[in-house]
Amino acid sequence: MKALGKQLAVDMYGCNFDILNNLELVKTALLTVIEDAGLTLLNLSYHRFEPQGLTVLALLTEGHLSINTHPELGYAAFDIFVWGDYSRPDTFLPTLRRLLKPEKTKTTHIVRGDFGSQKDMKPRIKVSIAPLRRVRNTSVKVWRFLRNK
User: Fold this and answer.
1) Cβ atoms within 10 A of the Cβ of 21, count?
2) What pTM was estimated for this model as a whole?
3) Which of 8, 33, 67, 147 has a Cα at 20 to 30 A from 129?
4) Three-state SS for 89?
5) 3-class SS string, 97-137
6) pLDDT digit string, tens, across residues 57-116
């Protein structure tokens, strides 16, 4: 079974304070990304924090889009989640970079709903036997020493 959805988390550093604190510009950026990707907007909500900062959330038929800004740090956190094969979330990055103008970007790709095999779902436990081997080797050396005496 293939994955049900794809998620992309983007951290943008070194953004302009005025861009990140401008609600209309950030909303326009999200709407542009949605339009360019051919996604369907159901609802757009936002909140302006005092003295600065924004959260904008776009509810989509195919998933969701959100952005949280921290203008005082020049930082924006962008998250997009889409179900199925509607679109590729990484194609939105050029539009976001063009609109928010970050100096540095860090992206994290997450595969959602990848059931895999039953074996893949079990937690992996790493056991190191090196300490046990050292104890066994030491005891062998002690027995040899005592036998030779």
Assistant:
1) 19
2) 0.70
3) 147
4) helix
5) HHHHCCCEEEEEEEEECCCCCHHHHCCCCCCCCHHHHHHHH
6) 999 998 999 999 999 999 999 999 988 765 666 678 888 888 889 999 999 888 887 766
Residues 53 and 24: their CA atoms lie apart, in Å, by: 13
d(CA 10, CA 4): 20
Burial 106-127 (b: 16+ CB within 10 A, else e): eeeeeeeeeeeeeeeeeeeeee
Domain residue extents for the chain:
5-121
Q: What whole-number distance in Å separates Cα of residue 22 and Cα of residue 71?
A: 10
Q: Alpha-carbon Rg of the chain, whole angstroms?
A: 25
**Exposed e or buried b per residue across 4-16, where buried means at least 16 C-beta atoms within 10 angstroms of its C-beta:** ebbbbebebeebe
Name beta bridge partners: 76. Answer: 12, 69
What length does the chain have? 149
Selecting from 3.60.90.10, 3.40.50.2300, 3.40.50.300, 1.10.287.130, what CATH number does the domain 5-121 have?
Answer: 3.60.90.10
As a whole number of angstroms, the distance between CA 27 and CA 57 comes to 9
Q: Is 149 helix (H, G, I), strand (E, B) or coil?
A: coil
